[in-house]
Amino acid sequence: MKDGIQKRTEMKKGRLLAFEGIDGSGKSTQLMLLAERLKREGVPVYTTMEPTASPIGAMIRQVLTGRIKMDPKVIAALFVADRLDHLLNDVDGIRMKVEAGTTVLTDRYYFSSYAYQSVDMPMDWVIQANEESRKILRPTATVFIDVPPKMAIERIVKGRASRELFEEQSRLEAVRERYLEAFERTKDTETILWVDGTRPVDVVAEAVWEKLQAFF
Ligand code: ADP
Ligand code: TYD
Question: What is the distance between the alpha carbons of residues 130 and 115, in angstroms, rounded to a whole number?
Fold first, then answer.
């Protein structure tokens, strides 16, 4: 007879869990809490984020801080390139990690592109541009931490000295609407777990944990 932890570990192979939400929704906080909990359960976990720390991700960060300016189409293409590198690079590409049995938690994935880049261009274009990433690795589940944009901005202002390109309330209103539209459009092929992020951190964490039980 195998004990519980061994059994659990054997069951958990090749998962990608993506965290999504508008800036300030609390998704990074929830991702870290889930990672700690899974580790305690004996699950091999790797945490990561987009934009990544790669040279492409570094260029994106310069756009987000206003250090360099680019056409929205070029920004969208950079996110696509950064994502493919995130999946495929030989050093820490997440496809190979998932294939090796690690549970990868990513702070943002292609739904971020669907939601943010579709404010400036048609969502079809953005979905099409991300087709290759979707084919390479579709998340087991995408956790959407939902908060009203006003609350998200209040959290950002409280926690940080400066704001980035997309961190205006009206922009975040548009992004939230587009997240919901993207979820509706892809509901036949994607697994979206909606979580009310307005509650205290530990309550949200428990809700995330409960929703994910079906996948472990
Ligand atoms: P995101 O990754 O979505 O931008 P963060 O996890 O970085 O969000 O959280 C943004 C800010 O809000 C941080 O200062 C964080 O401590 C705070 N925060 C996160 N979750 C909550 C919550 N449930 N209630 C109140 N504040 C929160
Ligand atoms: P991030 O550092 O995760 O910001 P936050 O912690 O505030 O959520 O992401 C930086 C910004 O990049 C964020 O405003 C969302 C944006 N973004 C896109 O516009 N498209 C994308 O494909 C990704 C991954 C991020």
Answer: 12
Alpha helices in 43-109 (DSSP H): 55-64, 72-88, 94-99
List helix spans (H) across the chain: 4-11, 27-40, 55-64, 72-88, 94-99, 110-117, 123-129, 131-136, 149-159, 169-185, 201-212
- The verdict on the CB of residue 107 being under 6 Å from ligand 2 is yes
Q: What is the pTM of this model?
A: 0.94
- C-alpha of residue 1 to centroid of ligand 2, in Å: 46
| Distance from the alpha carbon of residue 202 to the mean position of ligand 1, in angstroms | 12
**pLDDT reported for residue 13:** 57
Number of other CB atoms surrounding residue 142 within 10 Å: 24
Q: Write down the pLDDT at residue 166.
A: 73
